[in-house]
Amino acid sequence: MDITMNHITMIYPSGKKALQDVSVHAKSPGFIGVLGPNGAGKTTLMKLLIAGLLPTKGEILLDGKPLLSQEKKLKAQLGYLPQSFGLYEELTVWQFLDYMAALKGVKGKAAIEEVLMRTNMTERKKARIRSLSGGQRQRVGIAQALLGDPKLMILDEPTVGLDPEERVKFRNIFSEMAQNKIILLSTHIVEDVQAVCSRVLVIYDGRILYDGSPSELIQETAGHVGIYLSADGQTVFDGCQMVSKVNVSDGIQCRVVAQELPECAKTAEPTLEDAYLYCIHRKGGRQ
Prior knowledge:
Helix content: 25-40%
Strand content: 25-35%
């Protein structure tokens, strides 16, 4: 599978410009993490890729042909988990997945049993959805996205509501599946991207600030991450973006990213979270 977005601009009827001249090319296999703050354009990007929205300008191609002319082909190969996923409260988990399988044209009970096993929901398959916890509901959403072994998976905040152990399990599942498909993972959890994604897109204010490997983004940040001690944690130097504050025995340790670190700061090894924040701070113009 091959997907191309050429110079996409998306302006909503309200006048809000959600995406500005965005170009992205993805082909299988590929696991792409999409990072950005709220309102950056991540969800709009994903809705365009599933033909849920039409771009104001630009074109989207699926295997070299316009996406809209192949909507049936797209739906047959798509696994989608939106950020806000509605469930039918009165149905059991099995009934809901059976319904979703029918919509996708997936036949046979084996496919449902497989996704139940993968999402650790086999023992709850007869439970009504209204009785599930938030994390269990999220697992049902992930299960329906896995139905039919789709070639394209678009996951918008898939690990929200899951405990750390469950997040690790699903990261491993997604990583295994990416061996023969395209997966786009939109998340606020930078750790998820660092653990499984071979490519990362950083989106800010509707623009793509970075498109490349996580390791290269981290390398670009070397020398721009520093830590210093502050008595009250309130001391922030001009041109610095605060990453974190941690209480230590002799004060509050502040971690910052900056084009030029203050003299009192000791250089630290960058993480992907540092690199992401530095990218937004430097290229996005955030102060």
